[in-house]
Amino acid sequence: MKNEPSHPRPSEDDRRNALTAIGALITGFLGAIIPAGVGVVTLLDSLRQRPKPRAFRDNNSGVNSSGTGDYVRIAHVDAVPPDGQPRRFTVRMDQVDAWNFTADYPVGAVYVRRTKEGEGKVQVFHSTCPHAGCSVAPSVDGQAFHCPCHNSAFDLEGKRVVKTGKENPSPRDLDQFDCDPEKLAEGEIWIRFQNFETGEEEKKPML
Ligand code: FES
Question: Is the shortest distance between the CB of 79 and ligand 1 below 6 Å?
Fold first, then answer.
């Protein structure tokens, strides 16, 4: 009697069907993975190539001005009162992160005042109180800056002042910015705007 194999050999049709199924699987896999891979490469490439914008909004005219390094234009000196009183300006810059570009975004505010040192000389202060981050404002008599949150006070030079019987909780003077000297010589106020840590005796850039 002839012995029958326990596992019959697959027929030619079975092998062909199996190969067709494997081919379909591979084709389907490649069809899904290749577009996904191309998408990831394209995304990474666009992130790598996206330039950091260097055009900043002109605060007065609303016209984009080409950036000078990281300086941002605040105003023309003529926009600041000549009598030494501070004027507040909103600082607007183009913002970019990994996904979004936002033009003309308000990133903070500064107070600018002319000094008595000479024509065109100005002081620029961050409007944020160094104590805990509230906004300072000129006092009613215009002779100081005052923070309404915990009563910090600063003179018009940005120095802390202690009023009789009151404490000044600010750990340092108002944060001041240097102006681009070349621009200032042309009557333009440009600064490198940044935020600073609050609650510290030293002025430390916020990272
Ligand atoms: S935040 Fe200005 S005094 Fe506290």
Answer: no
Per-10-residue mean pLDDT for the chain, 207 residues long? 58 77 75 67 55 42 43 95 95 85 92 82 97 96 94 96 86 97 95 96 93
Pocket test for ligand 1, best of 135, 146, 149 (most atoms within 8 A of CB): 149
What is the domain count for the chain? 2
Q: How far from 49 is each of 44, 53, 105, 128, CA to CA, in Å?
A: 9, 12, 22, 34
Looking at residue 60, which CATH number applies to its domain? 2.102.10.10
- In whole angstroms, give the CA distance from residue 173 to residue 53: 32
